Amino acid sequence: MDRKGLEVAKFLLDWHYLLTEPPLDGSITEIYFCFVCSVYSKGKDKVSWLQFMKYLRIIAKLCDENTLVCVPKNALYQHYEDPFRCFDRITYINRLSLALLLRASSNLNYTFPSPPSSSGNSKSRSISPMNTDPNCSTSTNDDTSHFKVLDEIEFEYKRKPLSDLSNVEIPSTKSERLSYLLKLIDGEKPNVSDNDVYPIKIVTNKKLVPKDINDTYTLTTRSNRLEQLDYLLNTPCSSHDLQRERAKLRTPRHTFYDCCEDNDHASLLATMTSFDKNTSYCKLNEDKLKRLLYENGPSSNLNKEKLHQRYVQLQKCVETKLHFIPIIQAQTDFKLGDCSYLDTCHKMSSCRYIHYGQLMPLKKKEAENDEMYKIYENIRISDFTRGESVCAYLKPELPAQWINCDLMKIDFDVFGNDYGIVIADPSWTIHMNLNYSSLKDDELLSLRMDKLQKEGLFLLWVTGRTIETGREFLSSWGYKVTNQITWIKTSQLIRTISTGRTGHWLNHSKEHLLVGMKGDNIKWLNKGIDSQILISSTRETSRKPDEIYGIVERMCSPGVRKLEIFGRQHNTRSGWLTVGNQLDGVHLVETSLRERTVARNQAKVLGRRFQSNLEKPAYTPNPEKGAEFKKHLEAIEHHAQGSSSNWKKVSALIAGPAILLTAVNTWFVEKEHAEHRAHNKHLSDDEWPVPKYPYLNVRRVDFFWGDGDKTLFWNPDCNRHIR
Questions:
Q1: Where do the segments described as Disordered lie (predicted)?
Q2: Do 510 and 486 meet the contact criterion of CB atoms below 8 Å apart?
Q3: pTM here?
Q4: Which is deepest, 248, 261, 463, 640, by most CB within 10 Å?
């Protein structure tokens, strides 16, 4: 093949991924014009349309039929003197065949039979691999005539046998042949070190640096670099594989129970079980089952033997499989079918639909002690310790901790700022009647979530309405939303939910968990372990699946601190701190956290309702709260002024007896108070007031209604503490 033919082949090889895609769509005419406009067509003797078609035909015959797949199949053998009349297309270009053709072009000989002369004699002419144009040996300069003659003749190509090459060894095995084939395609392997991970030869020619963005030639010739970059971007890091394998060794496997599909078993067990409405589980009366087995023992009677085998199969099934027992009540109507809410129905005691209770297997396949010991050994002995502390296994995991507090009033500095993982499940306002209080969007935004972390992940549960609001909140708190976990809800019968409790237009059967990240390079973060889709059954109202804790714990190392906000008692978990207003008291183990909490409680106790004689306020005034208090006070005064003249509307016949009764009762009450105070010794003038206590529940001015806590009417003893 001559120089121009090699240029055509090189052009097809370099631009194969663009020639067959839009906007060219493999149009032979468009491919020709792209070739003419490119720098592949060098020199003054540019390739004509007929020569271009001729070279395409030569390439197709030199390689194989599938090198250039055209529509129609004989497109390369059609005669189009005008390129604008050609509407044929190339749909596929075999890159391997073109690479082999270019690599081995120096080892090819082409023999073209001469066109038959008028005397009937024919001569053959040989073209060397790097010879000039084959048509140059003919007697005419008309490209069209040469093209027609070339179409009428047949030409063959012959590869020199490898045995003729003194410096090439003949491959004998499949692996050697494969190596030789790859050598023809890629050339000699570069000398690289053992640490080099690049499978493609690195191009270091400075001349290949593109001059500008329109320098398509240098960009194309740098295809090796582009392939190398594509390989690096598409190859997953080995650390991700190691992190996944480490998570498999350290995660305990929970048993998956098969569900019994025999309806007879469910009907039989319905008479032997009791249903617990609080847990939606059934408890089997094993004594009743054993009594049935004893009464229906083995027998020679065929019917009794079948009945005995039936109970034996039932006993084996109860031990290994999960059963859904129908709950039959007095108002149950079988014609209505299953309840759409199932175990989450709020009116199960009066619902007429069918409900079910779960009967767990009697022999639960829980993790044995040796399996837990094996998991501990996998944590203790680990060759891959990226992202972990030096002696993480020596530090025991902290037990569950929780604080019952009002998050709208507590200072977030009490919790600290060294948490790696934070989960928040706020009670968003969804305009529905709920059995718990909800927060407005501006109230949630006012919380200082930005104080909890220096770097780490913040996971925020959002509803369908608040997805974009949650993204804005995370951004305002200093986080970048990097991912989103979707919880697909399933019913008690492990089916997708068809009737959700939320959604104004469509029933919501999924919830979203936004994942925000603070920090650029978090070394302890494990990536690519779990999927972002979570499928789990629903339970109580607003309760999230426990599987989310496993996903979060696998994303971080064991020593990372974890915090859950707006949690409830069922959310408490080992290694986590849970805070919220639906917890049972306070339970803390960490010394620093306990000291901060105790200091907060002491400050709260010392802050009395009334202050004594401070010259200035003990706190910085808040203009917003002051304006709100002033507005509330004005409303009270306005109400008092409006109701001050109500006594004028009451007649004297009613007001007189009422005042008399009130005065008599007040006299008796004050008399009892005076007798009670007479038995107590008063503080002397030297003992009171005590100067070292700045906060005393003392009035400097005598009010008619007294202190409000000690007496009903004014008396001089209410302003002096009694021992």
A1: 113-143
A2: yes
A3: 0.53
A4: 463
